[in-house]
Design brief:
- By secondary structure, the protein is of the alpha/beta class.
- The protein has two domains: 35-265, Alanine racemase (TIM Barrel), CATH 3.20.20; 268-397, Lyase, Ornithine Decarboxylase, Chain A, domain 1, CATH 2.40.37.
- The protein contains 13 helices and 18 strands.
- The strands form two sheets. Strands 1, 11, 12, 13, 14, 15, 16, 17 and 18 form a nine-stranded mixed beta sheet that branches. An eight-stranded parallel beta barrel has the order 2-3-4-5-6-8-9-10, surrounded by seven helices.
- Helix 1 packs parallel to helix 9 and helix 8 (194-210) runs parallel beside helix 9 (234-245).
- The longest helix has 18 residues, at 17-34.
- The chain is elongated, with a radius of gyration of 24 Å.
- The two termini are 45 Å apart.
- Bound molecules: pyridoxal-5'-phosphate (PLP).
- Pyridoxal-5'-phosphate (PLP) is lined by residues 43, 46, 64, 87, 186, 188, 221-224, 259-263.
Length: 403
């Protein structure tokens, strides 16, 4: 147990700056080695912790935003309009215009944005606007035999297969003062395979060729694995992506934009919780902790919670082993049971359970249910501790309420 953190009030998220730096460099080097001309843009929705957003800005990141609120947050934290990548099917028109006027990146995703582009060009007849288009394509058809999306089409972007993308391209090409500068390929997959990203990069080449697009950027989005030793990492993804892109684009002319979210931060983030009580039942024991599913997986999509245990009194070898201990959370929901320890040393109040690679999304996504946001502590590069967020209380909750 780290002496400094021993007395911190649990639960709290913990971010190791060294580990963050490791993944930033891993990404940067993979992009440098494979492409050279790139923009790293961080997916703000993944984790919008103000400390993190400003830290990433210092590392040279742009902000990838999907709402007016995220845009406003990024601006307040120092991002300029030309350091923004704006995605989403429901954009705010004023933000959309401001970013385009400033030379930031906007990837269109709806028919009303095509109208806006016509109106923008009319309003500013002497300007040239560089605009990107989000591509919707069926992944399974790109990698035959690999059921990447289980035949399910994503709901974002303009559909390639039925010609909607082609129509959007034709319409934009017909607007004087508008240039199709980029394609956006972000596609969420459960599998996050390297092959999928290679196929998506190949799709960018194919579309640019088919529609004679002279692209200034290809945006590959996010959705990579990161921080897991048994999974692919940035060098694998960008080796494959860039070898595909090189078949149709020149790195000197066309920028590669990336929008990593959780892959960039999961190695660095953990959630620290404490055992509060042990409840005996005939089948074993319930270990009541101050963590919760709400902080780890509110959508209840996961069944494993990588973790390690820090025993309160040093070695666990002197403790009796228990056949079944169910580690439970602090909410009053019956299903707030996290995992079962089988034939493991008996846990006691004061033991700490540290969830590894936890909080990437949930640090800011956790619902304000029963308890509010936990604190966030940063272990700085020099080993010192910095509190990036205090635990939320009713001070925050009661704001803007009237009774
Ligand atoms: C457009 C876009 N870019 C980037 C990301 C980040 O994805 P991840 O956190 O999986 O890297 C997302 C997440 O869904 C996204 O929708």
């Amino acid at each position: 147990m780290n002496v400094q953190t021993e007395n911190l009030q649990t639960p709290y998220y913990y971010i190791k700056e060294n580990a963050l730096l490791y993944d930033v460099k891993l990404l940067e080097n993979a992009l440098k080695e494979n492409w050279g001309n790139f923009i790293m843009s961080y997916s703000v929705k993944t984790n919008s912790l103000p400390w993190l957003l400003t830290w990433l800005k210092k590392q040279g990141f742009y902000a990838e935003v999907v709402s007016e609120m995220e845009y406003d947050l990024a601006c307040r934290l120092g991002y300029k309009d030309d350091e923004i990548v704006y995605n989403s099917p429901i954009k705010d028109r004023a933000v959309w215009e401001r970013i385009l006027l400033a030379g930031g990146y906007v990837n269109l995703d709806s028919s009303r944005e095509l109208e806006w582009a016509e109106e923008l060009a009319k309003t500013y007849p002497s300007r040239e606007f560089k605009i990107g288009l989000r591509v919707n394509c069926l992944l399974d058809s790109l990698i035959p035999g690999m059921e990447t999306s289980g035949g399910k089409r994503g709901r974002f972007g303009y559909c390639y297969e039925n010609g909607v993308l082609g129509d959007a391209i034709k319409r934009l090409k017909g607007i004087s003062g508008v240039k199709i500068a980029g394609l956006h390929l972000h596609t969420s997959t459960q599998s996050r395979t390297v092959e999928t990203f290679g196929a998506l990069a190949g799709m960018a080449v194919k579309i640019a060729d088919e529609y004679a697009l002279d692209l200034e950027y290809v945006d590959m989005g996010g959705g990579y694995f990161g921080g897991s030793p048994d999974m692919p990492s940035y060098p694998d993804y960008f080796g494959e992506i860039c070898s595909q892109l090189k078949t149709g684009f020149d790195p000197k002319k066309t920028k590669l934009i990336v929008e990593p979210g959780v892959s960039l931060i999961s190695r660095a983030t953990t959630l620290v919780s404490r055992v509060l009580e042990v409840k005996e039942v005939p089948e074993g024991s319930f270990i009541v902790t101050d963590s919760s599913r709400v902080y780890l997986n509110p959508m209840v999509t996961r069944h494993t919670y990588p973790h390690h245990i820090e025993y309160a009194e040093g070695e666990a070898s002197s403790r009796e082993s228990r056949a079944s201990q169910w580690v439970c959370g602090s909410t009053c929901m019956e299903h707030d049971k996290l995992f079962e320890l089988i034939d493991e040393p008996q846990l006691i109040p004061g033991d700490r359970i540290v969830y590894d690679r936890a909080g990437g999304y949930t640090m800011c996504l956790a619902p304000l249910f029963i308890h509010y946001f936990p604190a966030v502590w940063i272990e700085k590069e020099d080993g010192s501790l910095f509190q990036a967020r205090q635990e939320w209380t009713n001070e925050e909750y009661l704001q803007k309420n009237f009774w």
